[in-house]
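Appendix B. Worked example

We walk through a single record from start to finish. Start with the input: the chain for Anhydro-N-acetylmuramic acid kinase, Cellulosimicrobium composti, length 435.
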Amino acid sequence: MIVLGLSSGTSVDAIDAAAADLTLGDDGVLRMRPLGHTEYAWPRALRERILAALPPAAVDMAEVAQLDTLVGQELGRAGRRAIDDVAGGDVDLVASHGQTVYHWVVGARARGTLQLGNAAWVAEHVKRPVVSDFRVADVAAGGHGAPLVSVLDALWLGREDDTTGTDGAPDAGLTAALNLGGIANVSLVGRVDDPVTGWDTGPGNCLLDVAVARLTDGRLAYDEDGALAARGTVDPVALAALLDDPYFAAPAPKSTGRELFDTTYTERRLAAVRPGLTGPDLVATLTELTAVSVADALAGHDVRRVVASGGGARNPVLLDRLRAALAERLPHACEVVTSDTLGLPVDAKEAYLFALLGFLSAHGLPGTAAGEHRRRATGARRAVVLGSLTPPTPLPWQAASGPVRRLALANTPHGLLPGPRAKSPLTGSTKGSTR
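Next comes the structure step. The output line below is what the pipeline stores for this chain.
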């Protein structure tokens, strides 16, 4: 089955599209052949309306209804173009994440989540079935609905058996799959039959992007190659005030978004200690905040490798600061690589995730990995099939007859990932499942 994934992240910088040919074998190995990926810029006026509707803005229902339609139409146009641009006109299913505008979290629980981009408009443009609204079913089952990427990370990066370290002793370390989008999230993956832990660590690029746009009067949308941060000096007082946010100390699973780390966040947190902090020093401090908050989140775990993706993975200063922070907090060496080196482009991993989730949903398979304490990695009480189908007609393919055990990328460099045969944290049935 060829599935096109459409995604737009917290930064609302572009619509990402990726197509993959997915085949589930009798051995439980789901083989994914990436066909290509691209991105399409949001129309400027629509992007400004989306950003204006994000917290802490107060928005009336007329604007919500109009944005749901306009976002859906734009996602549909992007999907129609992507079918030709990256899939040669041949796509069976479109998986559309939509645009998150609100993620409702109270204390340690997610209460709801809202992604705009009505799937009927997407289906009208692409003339294919569309799976959308992926997060709500997990929230209804007691999960956070985020980060959903842990299912991809578990199937892709889980090792079959304990490997041997350079000293000949068993190496049972974890791989941390890190997404540095607007919000940073991480999945901790060990063996394929081990529970997976996934959570949002805090701000990725969202605070940085706001600061850079203001400092450059909108000429720059982000700190390209970390150039501004490289010119600045981290302010330790400001960094301490930012890190003092209770979110960083809260246990996983947890999720966050612009509801907490909004456009006024930095100014509010620094008002009492560094109200005048600006320029490259502010950018350097916010870069350090992302690096340190990620490293602090990983410090209590036996992480031996970090696989980074998302826009922040293109920022060499951020990655260097992350390496330094990890070296200070971990008692052993930890390699930091990008997902490019393992076969998934850093800019398209999220879009490929939704292609994977679309395939799983279409075949009646749950879209979350097993977590700790008989729960899912998102904190949900049970495994659920994610998403809704538009139009709600019988699918032209059969439901899967067995579980997915592994994910094998057709373009993964030989020898970099473990073999396919193993038990999996992803169950093939939702009936009575708690793992």
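Two observations about the output. The domain at 2-151+346-409 is CATH 3.30.420.40 (Nucleotidyltransferase; domain 5). The CA atoms of residues 18 and 177 lie 19 Å apart.
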